[in-house]
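Side project, low priority. Logging it here so it doesn't get lost.
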Amino acid sequence: MPDRRLADPAPAGAGESAAQPPCDLIRIELPEAAPPPSPYAEADRRQAVRDLLCGNRFRPAGVPRPGPFALRLWLRDGRLVLDIRDGQDGRPLRAVALALGPFRRLIKDYQMVVESHERAVAEHQGEARIQAIDMGRRGLHNEGAEILAERLKGRVAVDFETARRLFTLVCALHQRV
């Protein structure tokens, strides 16, 4: 079973409690490009952004202050770019670029499963079928999160839930290309 704790834990910030999840990221920006392939995909993207902003652990290495941060995500030259900025004044702090190669198969499989799920819901294929598809989707999602967290290791420490939500956004960006 994967370790789902913060990969590079930092001390909890002032005011963090079990009732109030930590929020290192306070703003997420995605490029306004081509429209998403479906309303379902757009809803998935929006939910990932909302969930990220409600609670996340995102600790860039080599950044002089502990946050909060703004994150701009985009794809450039076959790479995922994480442009990390000061959450208060927008000043650039660090950029991290990750090759998409290790994610391509997962992104493709994830998108096919999401489309299957969307079709199953639209065609009323039954709760058991929808749940089976959803289990497959969660498995791919978890695998993508593990790869993303591993690729970020030493550059940005994230917890498992933050990595899952970021993987959703990676898939959403890939759909728009």
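Brief comment: Confidence is low (pLDDT under 50) at residues 1-18.
Revisit when time allows.
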